[in-house]
Amino acid sequence: MQLRLVSWVFITLNLMEYVGSQQNPSRVRRQGKCKADCETCFNRNFCTKCRNGFYLHLGKCLGNCPDWLETNNHTMECNNIVHCKVSEWSPWSPCMKRGKMCGFKRGNETRKREILQLPTTKGKPCPHTTETKKCIVPKTRCQTRQTGRRSREERRKNQKTEESKENRQENSGRESRRQNRERDNKSKTQLKKRRAQDKQQKPVATSTVH
Question: Three-state DSSP class for 201?
């Protein structure tokens, strides 16, 4: 604990110097004046970017991060370990069974919680987010849907009604087609009769020899 406190005091002092160096760029140390494992720094004892293969931590370049930290291979820094965080449990849901709240006596209640913070590589993994427990309620009859014999009879009745409607439509179509054929035949018969009458009434031409 004392070591960490000393480290934070050290980093604070160097950061104050770093802020001053930003206001006066001439104070920033060049690459040649940094330590061998440091690429850029603002004094020899405080690095701002390490060379490849080293991780930056409190201005130092380390080959491996301390056990209480974890490596970040993207930034090449030693970062704090972040554990998973979850919300409080939600209230228990109503007693249900197969998505319904009626028609049963024994069911299940469920509660959930949300993940607020995902863990880092070394962090504690997230616990389960759903819990279920048994529940017993007074059995009530479902009113939204008919069941049993009454439901089957209702389906058969509806089916017969649909079949009867289809039969009436089909019979009506047949009757309409029959009437159309009769009208066509009657028209053809009348046309033949008129032609025959016209043929009989036409005068026959005769020739006279003198």
Answer: helix
Distance of CA 206 to the CA centre of its chain: 100
Q: What is the pTM of this model?
A: 0.47
- 50 neighbors 61 (Cβ within 8 angstroms): yes
3-state secondary structure of 105: coil
DSSP 26-80: GGSPPGGGS-TTEEEEEETTEEEEEPTT-EEETTEEESS--TTEEEETTTTEEEE
User: Domains (ranges, CATH) in the chain?
Assistant: 2-80 (no CATH), 83-170 (2.20.100.10)
How open is the CA angle 83-87-89, to the nearest 5 degrees?
130
Positions in the chain whose pLDDT score sits under 50? 1-6, 9, 25-31, 205-210
* 125-164 as b/e: b if 16+ CB within 10 A: ebeeeeeeeebebeeeeeeeeeeeeeeeeeeeeeeeeeee
DSSP-H helix ranges across the chain? 2-23, 148-201
pLDDT in tens, 11-31: 555 555 555 555 554 444 444
